[in-house]
């Protein structure tokens, strides 16, 4: 890489590789390098960081997300994540309850569009109270406009993608 840099060829400023420690263990590292000019010569300043812990955390997060996805997709109840009233996630069962054949069809839509006006008012009030930190009763029944089906819904506040959201279950 140094030879490429000296020839003026582009080289990555930051990259990951693994190094062999004296004890024989390979460790993942991130290398960041920047070319300078010092007294007319082209030295490089290079930083190397052990990223083992970060990679273990990323692997654990991937496993956790895969477990959630597996549980949610095989659940007999509808599961949804909302940033009220916007639908951010629904499993297959929740999509069916709302009248869709696949979950992606519901993403980005407003939950309120699927409820009767009276049910929408109830949902708005419950969401307002939940966002204010009030305790909201465990379950409520809503009738889905598209299917005419009445479902029992419970919801809890959660954090999703770094922001407050609502996790809902419908059966």
Helix and strand topology:
Blueprint (H helix, E strand, L loop, with lengths): L1 H5 L7 E7 L5 E10 L8 E7 L1 H23 L3 E6 L2 E5 L1 H7 L18 H15 L7 E5 L6 E11 L2 E8 L1
Antiparallel strand pairs: 1-2, 2-3, 4-5, 4-8, 6-7, 7-8
Notes on the structure:
The protein is of the alpha+beta class. The protein has 4 helices and 8 strands; from the N terminus they run αβββαββααβββ. The chain is elongated and about 75 Å long. It starts with a helix and ends with a strand.
Instruction: Order the strands across the largest sheet as they lie in space.
Output: 5-4-8-7-6
User: Oligomeric status of the shown chains?
Assistant: single chain
Number of helices, counting only DSSP H or I runs of 4 residues or more = 4
Q: Kindly estimate the percentage of residues that lie in beta strands according to DSSP.
A: 25-35%
Q: What does the average pLDDT come to?
A: 91
Number of strands: 8
Please provide the ordered H/E string of secondary-structure elements: HEEEHEEHHEEE
* Shape, per Cα inertia axes: elongated
> In percent, how helical is the residue content?
25-40%
Uncertain regions spanning at least 5 consecutive residues:
none
């Amino acid at each position: 890489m140094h030879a490429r840099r000296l020839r003026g060829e582009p080289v990555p400023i930051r990259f990951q590789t693994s190094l062999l420690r004296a004890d024989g263990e390979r460790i993942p590292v991130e290398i960041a390098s920047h070319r300078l000019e010092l007294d007319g010569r082209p030295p490089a300043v290079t930083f190397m960081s052990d990223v083992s812990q970060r990679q273990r955390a990323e692997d654990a997060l991937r496993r956790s997300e895969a477990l959630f996805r597996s549980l949610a997709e095989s659940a007999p109840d509808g599961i949804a994540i909302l940033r009220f009233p916007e639908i951010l996630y629904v499993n297959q069962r929740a999509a069916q309850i709302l009248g869709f054949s696949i979950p992606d069809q519901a993403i980005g839509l407003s939950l309120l569009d699927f409820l009767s006006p009276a049910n929408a008012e109830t949902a708005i009030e419950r969401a307002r109270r939940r966002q204010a930190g009030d305790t909201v009763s465990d379950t409520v029944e809503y009738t889905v406009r598209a299917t005419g089906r009445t479902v029992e819904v419970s919801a809890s506040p959660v954090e999703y993608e770094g922001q407050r959201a609502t996790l809902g279950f419908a059966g």
